[in-house]
């Protein structure tokens, strides 16, 4: 019997385009002139490539406010009866408190991240709704204890150390003040930058009706104080990273922190966190192929003190921040 055709994999970007994506990860609002100078490219070429990358959704710069300081997280692994997967997946993806939903390559398990708040005790999804659903055969939940790195901090390994240094703005943003809400002007600018983090002060002034000098000063303050955080939302497959995997690791408590920090610095890791449960460290990976995954498991984890590993191959990324639910 003829198997149904799989959707064609998206074309991999050129090396030049990948280097521009990496440059935007260093500074999402870097002028095209500065990117062109550091990478040795023409300014018009950089401008055209950035527009194209954004227009087709391959790489968009967006700005988001940081999560409230009392925000926590729960990693969910939900096993589902075949034939009911789409129903449960759609229900999870529709929730505002669930930013990540992945389906396993085997098609019988869902991996998701749920955000929680300390001022909202209890979890109806975990304790009532999922267990009461006949399509769900099991639910495993692990509370996030510490975040070592997330997707916003991930950097594509396509620049030299000197190039990355030249493109990265000096100084880190100051911690944001959760007690200070946005006023109307800040809220309007935050909305524009959520749509396009490279919106110029002139364009934002034209859309909001505020003076350009005021807009420029407000944007600088919002970013400098860490009240907005720039991120490049990208499709890793266009970067030649076709394997999406989550690994759950067991480590002795005295090796946990060092291992988490080491994995956060690994170029394949776009998220790593310490958790409760049988495994106490979870990492999300983007790699070129299965051979690269094998090297990660058999070589890169060596010396970290890992005593057990479980690998979850993602067959479909249903929902990720910046991407609509599938």
Automatic annotation (TrEMBL):
Sequence ranges assigned to domain HTH asnC-type in this UniProt record: 16-53, 183-222
Pfam families the record matches: AsnC_trans_reg (PF01037), HTH_AsnC-type (PF13404)
Keywords associated with the record: DNA-binding, Transcription, Transcription regulation
Domain Transcription regulator AsnC/Lrp ligand binding: 248-314
InterPro entries per record: AsnC-type_HTH_dom (IPR000485), Dimeric_a/b-barrel (IPR011008), Tscrpt_reg_AsnC-like (IPR019888), Tscrpt_reg_AsnC/Lrp_C (IPR019887), WH-like_DNA-bd_sf (IPR036388), WH_DNA-bd_sf (IPR036390)
Source organism superkingdom: Bacteria
PANTHER family assigned: LEUCINE-RESPONSIVE REGULATORY PROTEIN (PTHR30154), TRANSCRIPTIONAL REGULATOR AZLB (PTHR30154:SF34)
Descriptive protein name: AsnC family transcriptional regulator
Record organism: Streptacidiphilus monticola
